[in-house]
Amino acid sequence: GFAVAQGLVFIAKYAKMPEIDRLTSLLKKIGLPHQVELNGTPEEIVEVMMADKKRVGKDLTLVLPREIGKVKVVDGVKRKEMGKFLERSKFKS
What we know:
The chain is of the alpha+beta class. Helices cover 44% and strands 17% of the residues.
């Protein structure tokens, strides 16, 4: 549950989910991580993401939360785009 919770917060930030404060509050309330702590450089993290089963070719497929209970599947997210997001994000490491 801890890794899933961190992944959910990470992707909610990437998707600019409007209800992110509500999401993090709910996670905190049930004792799950509500902040993202990443270990590694943006390049290393993207490399791990490329091993995901949802990957298509050289691009990522992401399941982006739009609001609580609703998601959108987005194909073709470039490694470079995700790397730039990681670089400009202020995640703990």
